[in-house]
Specification:
Blueprint (H helix, E strand, L loop, with lengths): L9 H8 L16 H6 L7 E5 L3 E6 L2 E6 L2 H11 L7 E5 L15 H21 L2
């Protein structure tokens, strides 16, 4: 499938597969992938958000925006994990660049602005709901 899914979908999916009631994972940010896996039912998700304080990202459709807020923390964390976490504002068209090699942030500032607004709205909603 080319359905957008994420690691935090594992908990609700595995709980559902084990027969747990939906209420047991209702507070999770993840979605239950079992209907997709077993019946091809599409997920009700258009956007994914990540926020770890020093870095955040939002993915919608073909676009992924990554923003490193604290380069020092990102560099330190990345070196411990043996990965490059990025620098500043990065925008990628994942349909054409799955490896995230061609930063398009300066070419598509309107997409950066739109995804930033979406992320700010999500962060506000999550903060007010106590998640």
């Amino acid at each position: 499938t080319d359905t957008m899914a994420c690691g935090f979908d594992l908990m609700p999916t595995l709980l559902s597969a084990a027969g747990a009631p939906a209420a047991s994972y209702a507070q999770s940010d993840g979605l239950n992938l079992l209907p997709l896996i077993t019946h091809g039912k599409p997920l009700d998700r258009e956007t994914l958000h990540w926020d770890v304080g020093f870095q955040w990202a939002v993915r919608q459709g073909k676009w992924k925006l990554k923003v490193v807020v604290d380069e020092g923390k990102a560099g330190s964390t990345g070196s411990k994990q043996h990965v490059e976490l990025g620098h500043g504002i990065e925008l990628y068209n994942l349909d054409e660049d799955e490896g995230e090699k061609n930063n398009l942030a300066s070419t598509f500032p309107e997409v950066v602005e739109r995804l930033t607004r979406l992320h700010d709205q999500w962060r506000s909603k999550v903060s007010s709901s106590g998640k």
